[in-house]
Amino acid sequence: MVSWSEGSSSSWDDDSQTNQLPTTIPCYEWSGIAHELSSRCMHLEPCLREVAFKSTNTGRRFLACAKEKAEEKCYYLEWIDPEWSVAMQFCIGQLWSMHDKENDDKIRENLKLLGEEKSKMEEELLFFKHDFAKLVVAKEEAINKLGSARLAISDLKEEIEKKKLADHSSINLHQVLRAKAEKERDHLVLERDQMKEEKKKLDCIIADMMKQNNAYKDMVKKLKEICDEF
């Protein structure tokens, strides 16, 4: 059993040289708390089964502090599997170097593609900005035209209202004149009817006077005849 501070390795990226616990990988056969083992961490508690990964210790099993929070973990480390041979560590290191190089190449390629995509997006963004500016100008023109149209409609409504008032006044005047004419007509009709009645009365009086005149004439004629007999 060794503590983390006592660990040693001659590998190219041994975790013990960087003062960090090894990177791990899930393993179904070696996992969980090792209650059955006598190993205890610096907290004097059972250790957690782990398998190293991404180093020349890749695949080696070890025991470490079982605390879940990183700030609570102690630096206890107990290797279960023996250290790989130098040749094995070299091969593992080469494999990880190849893996890292391939990842770096992919990252560079992705960055290149991202740069090209960024340039393309910037061009499209510039195009959209110009197009948006045109839309803004068109919108402002449309708003101005709409404002002019609203003013024209408002003026037209005002003219219509004035015309309605004028028409209403004209209708009222026409109604007043018509009512006055009808009143005068009724008055003339009444006077005409009265004159007709008076004419009838005069006709009757004249007829009576004519009868009386004829009677007087007859009386005068008879008186004359009587006088002539003498």
Q: Would you kindly provide a written description of the structure presented here, covering whatever features stand out?
A:
Helices cover 63% and strands 5% of the residues. It has 230 residues and is mainly alpha-helical. The chain is rod-shaped. The relative contact order is 0.06.
Number of helices: 1
Broad structural category: mainly alpha
Shape: rod-shaped
Q: For the terminal residues, how far apart are their CA atoms?
A: 203 Å
Radius of gyration: 65 Å
Strand content: under 5%
Spatially, the strands of the biggest sheet line up as 1-2-3
> What portion of residues is helical?
55-70%
| Biggest beta sheet attributes | 3 strands, antiparallel
Low-confidence stretches: 1-13
Topology:
Layout: E1 48-51, E2 61-64, E3 77-79, H1 86-229
Antiparallel strand pairs: 1-2, 2-3
Summarize, please.
By secondary structure, the chain is mainly α. It is 63% helix and 5% strand. It contains 1 helix and 3 strands, in the order E-E-E-H.
Offer a few descriptive terms.
single chain, 230 residues, mainly alpha, 3-stranded antiparallel β-sheet, 3 strands, 63% helix, disordered N terminus
